[in-house]
Amino acid sequence: KLVRTENKIYLGQVRAKKKQGLGVTIYKEGRIYEGSYVDNEKSGMGCEVYANGNLYIGQYHQNKKHGRGTFFWFSLCDNSATKDPHRKVEQYE
Fold first, then answer.
1. Distance of alpha carbon 93 from alpha carbon 83, whole angstroms
2. Which of 9, 24, 31, 76 has the fewest CB atoms lying closer than 10 Å?
3. What is the model's pTM?
């Protein structure tokens, strides 16, 4: 089912007019969540990509990151010796 609101679009399973099961939510500011929902809340395994490119893969409970997961920060670095820009990845597990 496709559900649109002012700030987001949801595509996924719905039961009793609530997000229930697997789905994808695309937020107006550019963030995307794909994963499990229980009673309209992120719950279980999911993946969230932020507008700046950062990424979280892991568990959620009641719309919050909870349990095991990994957060990845991506930043553009400039090697002043070679003037070669590259991406730097940091992660927290």
1. 31
2. 76
3. 0.82
Q: Are 28 and 15 in contact (CB under 8 A)?
A: no
Distance of alpha carbon 80 from alpha carbon 87, whole angstroms = 14
Using one digit for the tens of pLDDT, what is the confidence trace for 32-79?
999 999 999 999 999 999 998 899 999 999 999 999 999 998 876 665
Q: How far apart are the first and last CA of the chain?
A: 33
Q: What is the pLDDT of residue 86?
A: 61
* Residue 60, both tokens: 């959620």
Decide: 58 and 45 in contact? Cβ < 8 Å. yes
**Token representation of residue 84:** 């070669």
